[in-house]
Amino acid sequence: MTYRPSHSGSGSASNSLRILEVVARYGTGTTAKEITDSLRMPPATAYRILNALVGDEYLVRTSDLRGFALGHAISGLVTAATPPTVPTAARTVIEEFRRGNRFAVHLFMFRSASLRVADEDPDYPLHSSFEMLRYPHTSAAGKLMLAELGDAASALPGGQLVKLTEHTITDSGRLEEQLAEIRRTGQASEINELEAGSASLALPVRLPGGPVGAALCLTGPAERFTTICEHAEAARELTTRLAPLLF
Length: 247
Known about the structure:
Distance between the termini: 50 Å
Helix content: 40-55%
Shape: elongated
Order of helices and strands: HHHEEHHEEHHHEEEHH
Number of helices: 10
Strand content: 15-25%
Number of strands: 7
Radius of gyration: 23 Å
Oligomer: single chain
C-alpha cells in the first residue's frame, strides 16, 4: 500500500493527531496494524509516533501489550473542547433570577485551571469574552478561580499579568492581596479592569465543604457597581440552590 500523508498539516504532529483519531474511533485495544492499515502509514513511522504518544501518556498500552487505548493526558484536550453542561433545572433558576434584576447574570465553570462560559445572559451578551477567558486576572469570575487555585501564575499565559485597561492589576503582589481578600470574603469584583466602563461581582458556587467549581457573575456599568452589590445576598442564595444542580 502507498502511504498517503495528511494534507491538513505536516510532520509528526499531524500524524500523531491522525493516530489518536483512529484509536478514538476503534476503541480500546486498537492494534498497530489497524492503525497502519487505516492510515496507510509505514509501520516504522507509526511505531515511532506510537512510542512517543505512550511516553507522553496520550496513549496507553492494553494489559496484554497487543493494543492501545487513549491515555489520561487526552482528557485535558477533551475537556477543553467540550462546552460545560448546565442542567435544565439550573438554567431555569438562573433565568428566574435574571427576571428580577436589571444587570447581566452569567454563569462560568472552572475547568482544569481555565474559565469557561456555561450560561451567558442572552439579554446582555459578553463583550470581552475572549479577554476574560484568556486573562482571568482581569475579571471577577477569573479572580475567583485564581483564588481557588492558589497558584495564580499557572492559569496565566506565560505567568504574565497582561494590561487591558489602565485599571488592570499588573503587580503580582497586589493581585495576591486581592486573592487573599477574596478567600476571606467569599466574593470577587472588578471595576474597569476588564473593560472600561464595566464592573462585575462574582460569587462562588460550591457544595458545602467542597471546592469552588463555578462562579455566578453580575455585570453592569461601572458607575452602578454599588447597586450591583445590593444584589449580592440574593445572588448568594441562588448559588446555594445552583450547587446541587451543577455538581
